Amino acid sequence: MILIGTMNLTRTRQTGDFYCPTCGVTQSYRLRARRPFLTLYFIPTVPIGQAELFVHCDHCKSNWDPGVLNMDQVTHQRVQAEQYKDEAIRSAVLIALQDGDITEPQVQALLHLADMMFDRPIEREELGRLCSIARQAGIRPHNYVLTISKRWTMTQRLLALQAMFLVATASEEDLSDEMVKTLISMRDLLQLTENEFQIAIEDTLQYRVA
Questions:
Q1: Alpha-carbon distance 66 to 61, whole Å?
Q2: What residues does the Zinc-ribbon domain cover (predicted)?
Q3: Read out DSSP for 152-192?
Q4: Which domains does the chain have, with CATH numbers?
């Protein structure tokens, strides 16, 4: 019986140093090529696809598109800063949707904080799209923040928490038990102490809509 199958072979094509966005400092890297091969008796014989190139950080083990080698530290930090703004605003949107339908005061709070807190103004139409995407995908605040907050700095975590709290308290109604639990889970996910949490909440006064 002839045994035929496929397997991926990965080879290093280049090594050097680069600015790793995950580590936040310069690290050594390997430019690697991964390509599928047809195997005969578990021995790779014939390539059956194009090689996929990726940059592998030797320190944190993250993989990146080769284009990362053409970006300097300043460019990376600028891109990350813009990415954070979008992530923080989306986190606040998910908080607004936690109890169901978003209220008009929460809409106004989101528009205000996007402009004043993050210098990233958004229109109602864009906000509506963000809400629709979140509803259709069934995205929950806990899962989203858990995924994206690991690369946030402490300052970014505190600011994002303030945005989430402002949206949660935008309506005049008392916070639901579910909303209270969600905010507490955000505190824990962002690895904030009780004191840091309380100070961040107290500092939200400067951002409230007049």
A1: 15
A2: 19-64
A3: --HHHHHHHHHHHHHHHTSSSSPPPHHHHHHHHHHHHHTT-
A4: 4-70 (no CATH), 74-204 (1.10.3680.10)
Say if residues 65 and 27 touch (Cβ distance below 8 Å): no
Which helix (H) or strand (E) element contains residue 60?
Answer: none
What confidence tens digit (pLDDT) does each residue in 42-70 have? Answer: 666 667 777 888 999 999 988 988 988 88
Q: What is the DSSP string of 84-105?
A: HHHHHHHHHHHHHTTTSSPPHH
Beta-bridge mates of residue 32: 12, 54
Q: How far apart are CA 121 and CA 82, in angstroms?
A: 12
User: pLDDT per residue over 97-133, tens digit each?
Assistant: 988 888 999 999 999 999 999 999 999 999 999 999 9
